[in-house]
Amino acid sequence: MALTSKITTHNPAWPQRYEADKLLLALAFGDELVAMHHVGSTAVPQLAAKPEIDVLIEVSEHRNEAARDEVLLTLGYVRGSDLSQGHHFYRRNVGEVRTHKIHICRCGHQSVIQMLTFRDLLRNDSLLRQRYQDLKIELEATNTGGMAEYLEKKGPFIIAALLEVDNRRR
After folding, report:
1. What CA–CA distance (Å, rounded) separates 128 from 85?
2. Pfam families from the entry (predicted)?
3. pTM score > 0.90 for this model?
4. Which of 3, 66, 68 lies closest to 30, judged by CA?
5. Do residues 28 and 68 lie in contact, with contact meaning Cβ atoms separated by under 8 Å?
């Protein structure tokens, strides 16, 4: 079973793709929008990634979800299953190719902290970035169970990196 797209070398145009959608996405949230961030591997220079732009949107509350879903649908985004309590997920495909993912969480949600911390770790630690890239390429090459398997097998690496940061802060 294939991943949603193939891992490719870093493309310097990825941040521009994020910026291109940022203003349109903001319209779907009105006054509940707190912040918007480019996260995931496409937000990390020099890191190979699936060319899918990950957007993290922080909201003050999850209000007017039905109206939000309608606006996002007009922009090509389909709501998926919630990834955890209060962590809403949307995806946009062009044909059969995944191009964007949106994570919507209340400000301060644990997912917000984890995604921003891990992104910044990868941006600032070239050794960690290389190890993560090597793992992703290996997982893609050996994957038989699709995205669920890929995410499950990346999880321990991400958790270990976040725990190391947490231990340093104590």
Report:
1. 29
2. GrpB
3. yes
4. 68
5. yes
